[in-house]
Amino acid sequence: MPFPHLRSHGARQAARLALFLVIALLLAGCSRKAATPSATPTAPAVAASTAPATVQPVDAVKFVVSEPGLYGVTAADLTAAGFDPAAGDPSRLTLTLDGEPVTLISQGSGDTLDLTFYGAPRASRYGWENVYWLSWGDQPRSEVGRTLTPAATASAQLRTSFTDRQTLEENITYLSQLPADSDHWLWQSLFAPATFDLPFDLPGWAGGDVELSVTLWGNTQDAAADPDHRALLLVNGQQVAEAAWDGQGTRTVTATLPADVVQAAGNTLTLSAPGDTGATVDMLYLDRVDLAYERQLAAAPDQQLLFGIEAGAPVAVAEADAAQALLWEVTDPAAATPLTGATTSAEGLSFQDDEGEGLRRYALATAGARLTPQAILPANSADLRQNSEGADYIVITPSDFAAALQPLVDYRREQGLRVTVAEIQDVYDTFSGGMVDPAAVRDYMRYARDNWPGPAPRFLLLVGDASYDYRGFLADGTPNLIPTYLLQTHFVGETASDNWFVSLDEQDDRPDMAVGRIPAQTAEQVATVVAKTLAYEQDPNAANWAGRALFVADDKQTSFQEISDDLATNYLPASYEAEKVYLGQSADPNGAVIDQLNQGVGMVTYVGHGSMNVWAQEKILSITDAVSLHNATQPFLMTMTCLVGYFHHPQAASMGEELLFNRDGGVVAAFVPTSESLATDQSQLAGNIYTHLFGDAPTVGEAIMLGKQDLSAERDLMQDLIETFTLLGDPALRLQRPN
Fold this sequence. Notes:
This protein is an alpha+beta fold. It has three domains: 60-142, no CATH class; 162-296, Jelly Rolls, CATH 2.60.120; 385-728, CATH 3.40.50.1460. It contains 15 helices and 41 strands. It has a six-stranded mixed β-sheet, sandwiched between helices. Strands 4-3-7-1-27 form a five-stranded antiparallel β-sheet, with no helix packed on it. Strand 3 and strand 4 form a beta hairpin. Helix 4 packs parallel to helix 8 and helix 13 packs across helix 14 (700-709). The protein starts with 12 loop residues before the first helix and ends in an 11-residue tail after the last strand. The model is unreliable at 1-32 and 35-52 (pLDDT under 50).
């Protein structure tokens, strides 16, 4: 539950619509996440971005590509990545993207081998990088290419321009509350009255009208005003469009710019929100600007030209020589086709392509203007499909954390669990073609369940932090080491779900495995959690503290303390001693909670309002406390609240994370939410977990799994609970019990 002025059981629509802004204020006091010393500001295409210092021979390499165009790779490039270009007949080299063949042209052999292919960026929220795989095939490649029809000779018939489209966009603000099918990343905010100036050029403009499209997001609404928003568009000081609309949502404003309004360079688009609607607050976000105009078909030295022309139209590209140019038809990037038969005339390189219909796309470049892949990496990953022993406990981690994790792996094996440790890049390479995609993790779990020797895996431990900034838009954001899955919820919009990885059956959202995460950015943080986990389970003096259970509750709703009392009275075994710190019943609730932790407790349950950095407005416990606690024994924490486990923020740490990573205190594991939900629903989840935790579940993770399975998923709000309540810590943790 959030604070009462944000939400109650009868929350008003206006409060929901302003939720993002309020959450932003709550997050303002959060501590920053510490970036790994080697971290880069952008999300990596692959776990490793460069070849190792000592290159081992490999039979395959990966080309990482993030922009469209013709690419060139030389024998020296391949050798540097450990791939021997002389190991086979060049005609047997094959190039694939996500397992599907891609057109490849090779010239020369051995040390003179030269490869050309057309690469395109990935259309995914998880990254722009496509990963192409080069390997030796069993059969020679089929010859590819087409010969073109000579272009018409009459200059009047030749197409000397094409419709170019450019998008101006910066992604600097993330709004979780936008609809599920929206782009959650926006550009400039405007609190009316306000203006924003955007310079733009029209490279190669051939004259004529320019089509302008501006996409906006109206972020506020006022029931007393209609419309809520008004926006004006001016180009070079001349108004070209205006729009007024009511309510929160997307609005696209279009205009046709006459040739006398624009120029080839030095234009200015002004977005104005005059603030004259009568709304108390009129707030807009600029999402993106799209421009379409006629551009001259002209080649530039050492640059590629990508253009689209209707099938069958004769074309002339100025400043291009057919004898020197590489011309490919790339309408379907996977089936890109080299073209021959173009001629050179006074108008430039001329051709006519009668193949297909509609708009056809082409790439033109000299050999020297070909692009170089963003990275050329040895493909030396393991095939994770192969496992002859099966597994009970699967760990997914970056390679840098493996050593810090090893003591926990050894301990779980000593307990009799079959343990498999997989590096995240191997997961991507095996299940998503080497590209970052959360679906690869779930596909891995499904494959293990359906194909490995039984019994099926019980636990999934994700070791590494996640971020909603998949593509690294924020320069100071932390790396996305082990991604989470972002799904839509009722109260905060999009948020993190690790439950999604272990929801393996399509018919419901209930987990089929126990899942937990150590959201670490450093190996030191991993080592801290591993040490706390081992110390907790192996403590010879556990009987002195394991039987004490601390219940903490807010007083802003009477149901909070009623839920806490119900758990303590009806679900906690009689062998436990219940201690309570309730707001309104304690003179110093913050001091009382810290005192109880210092005395030693085996379990803590909090029920009440919360945010990323506090329990209750009165700060029963704060993120500052979480960092400074020095309790000698670390309990298991269950929270029935909101946002305390928002671990996927790229710039701030949640309270749940700070409690977990506190080396001198805090908790051994925490069951925390990444979203908001209602107390009445949370009480059902808490009761279910208590029942299994003190009943048939041997581990904390399995108690959570079974508790979620017992919920009715027919109500959408229950599905939110199933998806967004998360275990930070080891799902195989065995709860210390009295006696």
